[in-house]
Give the backbone structure.
Amino acid sequence: MTTTSTPGREAELRDNLSAVRERIQAACVAAGRPEDAVTLVAITKTFPISDVRALAELGVRDLGENREQELKAKAPDCPDVTWHFVGQLQSNKARSVVRNAAVLHSVDRSSLLKALSRAAVDEGRVLRCLLQVSLAEYGPEEAATGRSRGGVEPAAVPELAAEVAAAEGLELGGVMAVAPLGSDPDEAFGGLEVVASRLRSEHPGADWISAGMSGDLEAAIRRGATHVRLGRALLGTRTPLG
Ligand SMILES: *Cc1c(COP(=O)(O)O)cnc(C)c1O
């Protein structure tokens, strides 16, 4: 794995970053929201540490990974940023995520909480937790097959939220979602906005909405996203890991 990037790659990342910042800014203006209302989280999965460092040097303060192995490999090499974990999590990887990330976007079941809480207490850290909400009802295919891109059903959010809020070492931060394939992202993220606002009425500090990826960030920002998670628009096409 290369550890420094070529000048060509740095220029490419700089261009992509300014294009993405312009998209975010334009979407905020169009939605009548302040331009600093949205935080960009760069999802660096499958890309080398040289890209991570280059983005940090370009001023990106929030970086994310979706596999524990990659998070563990990259985060210690770039400690001056906030690391986010956005992938499916297994309980036996909880400690590694607590050590290497400050924010977990994908809390989708209560059985994770014991391991997360214990690890956070042991490590003397506080992990900000977002509940991943299933928007399957907005995706034709997912609604038909019952399969979803993950997350807790909207109706189960209050109970899971109360458990996170009560867990030592964990801080309830808000919600996260991925728009289902084939859905209208405005509708799907509109559904998320309702879930988020109900959550906030019970837990005022849980005010983050992590929604929007490279293809649908404008819709997410219209629907109140506070954090957009961008991979391809910043880093380019991914080649799948073997
Ligand atoms: C990969 C990934 C992203 C970024 O997706 P792009 O389409 O590359 O912007 C966002 N969220 C999660 C959970 C991801 O796994």
Remarks:
- The two ends are 15 Å apart (CA to CA).
- Residues 7-234 form a domain with the TIM Barrel fold (CATH 3.20.20.10).
- Residues 43, 45, 66, 86, 178, 213-215, 229-233 surround pyridoxal-5'-phosphate (CB under 6 Å).
- The first strand starts at residue 39 and ends at 43.
